[in-house]
């Protein structure tokens, strides 16, 4: 356990609707000397951030009600210096781009532990690597379809019926596709 004074410990807001994951991560960060506040949704997170703005935040992408992307935007409106990482079990290139565009410093797939999150914060502090890879591997057709579906769903604010209409497929077909894991590259 850290003996650093409370006012010198880094502050972290941990937001996830999965209480087991949230409390496991909170305990791990507290054991590393962090001052941790937890929230289960957008509203609770905003109340906590307005009460005392955190230096760091870890935000789940998919939560009931408002999404993690909306929370990234709103947390940065409270304090633009908050360093935010988005966690998700449903990652895609489009949501990663959206998270970074909104101001998140990094994006991690679940499951992630405290060490993964700390490493992601550290990578965000490093200078970006601007060297382009020598070969670009195009995603598979299945992966491109999966990413497109999730992009349309995000653009439809999570409304499956609306996304199905935009994609020109039946709602049940879309629901079946959404239950599948993302195809590998």
UniProtKB/TrEMBL annotation:
Keywords: DNA-binding, Phosphoprotein, Transcription, Transcription regulation, Two-component regulatory system. The keyword DNA-binding applies. InterPro entries: CheY-like_superfamily, Homeodomain-like_sf, HTH_Fis, Sig_transdc_resp-reg_receiver, WalR-like. SUPFAM superfamilies: CheY-like, Homeodomain-like. The modification 4-aspartylphosphate is found at residue 60. GO terms for cellular component: cytosol; protein-DNA complex. Residues 11-125 form the Response regulatory domain. One of its GO terms (molecular function) is transcription cis-regulatory region binding. This is Fis family DNA-binding response regulator. The lineage of its organism: Bacteria, Pseudomonadati, Myxococcota, Myxococcia, Myxococcales. The gene is actR.
């Amino acid at each position: 356990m850290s003996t650093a004074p409370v006012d010198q410990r880094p502050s972290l807001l941990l937001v996830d609707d999965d209480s087991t994951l949230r409390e496991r991560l909170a305990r791990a960060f507290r054991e590393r000397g962090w001052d941790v506040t937890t929230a289960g949704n957008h509203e609770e997170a905003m109340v906590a951030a307005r009460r005392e703005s955190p230096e760091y935040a870890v935000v789940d992408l998919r939560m009931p009600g408002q999404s993690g992307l909306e929370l990234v935007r709103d947390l940065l409106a409270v304090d633009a210096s908050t360093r935010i990482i988005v966690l998700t079990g449903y990652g895609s290139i489009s949501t990663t781009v959206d998270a970074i565009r909104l101001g998140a410093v990094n994006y991690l797939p679940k499951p992630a532990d405290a060490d993964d999150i700390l490493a992601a914060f550290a990578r965000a502090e490093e200078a970006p690597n601007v060297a382009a890879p020598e070969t670009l591997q195009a995603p598979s057709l299945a992966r491109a379809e999966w990413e497109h579906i999730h992009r349309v769903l995000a653009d439809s604010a999570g409304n499956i019926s609306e996304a199905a209409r935009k994609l020109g497929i039946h709602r049940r077909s879309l629901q079946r596709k959404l239950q599948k894991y993302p195809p590998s590259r």
